[in-house]
Design brief:
Length: about 80
Amino acid sequence: MDLSLGGASLRAPTDAPYALGERLSLEIDLPGLEDPVEIDAVVRWVDAIDTARIGVQFATGLRPREVYAVNQLARRQQG
């Protein structure tokens, strides 16, 4: 749903509720990169009304090419 350099808000399957502090391994397709990026993340919030909406903080840093791709995506969303 929303992606930044530090984390993301995501729509997640509702069949298994997520807990604050839970660690996740994400695979994200970024524009301009051939392969998906694998990122470790930590659940920081779960929407009380729509439990399929969660916020995660990236636990591992992004590499420079990934930072560039996220910035390009953000520019497209603002434009």
